[in-house]
Amino acid sequence: MYSLVNGFGLDSIIGYETTSYVTNMNNGLTQNYMKKIKYFVNKSIKKFHNIYIDNIKKDFSKKELEIYKKELNKELIQVRADFINYK
Asked: Over its length of 87 residues, how does the chain's per-residue pLDDT go in tens digits?
């Protein structure tokens, strides 16, 4: 049914493909880094902000809630900046 393939000369092809794969991964990470940071922060922190706001809705007026939401959004921006500027 199946026969073995002679692997002579495949080392260079495998080496090239490995290099190509690593290069593509690095390029994908560097090009989409900001999107990934924004996505991570929004998914992990904004969820808790929304739960917190839902819990305090009945205690505050709409205007106060809007002000508080803006403060929470500023906090999200600061967290994103901290991730980007981390050394």
From this structure: 778 877 777 888 888 999 999 999 999 888 888 888 889 888 888 888 888 888 888 888 889 889 988 998 898 889 888 888 876
Q: Model pTM greater than 0.85? A: no
Q: Which amino acid is at 9?
A: G
- Furthest-apart CA atoms within the chain: distance in Å: 76
Query: Quick one: which of 85, 87, 77, 86 has its CA closest to 38?
Result: 77
Phi, psi of 8 (to 5 degrees): -65, 125
Which residue has tokens 């090239």? 16
For 51, counting Cβ atoms within 10 Å of its Cβ (0-12 exposed, 13-18 middle, 19+ buried), the class is exposed
**Residue 76 and residue 46 in contact, taking contact as beta carbons nearer than 8 Å:** yes
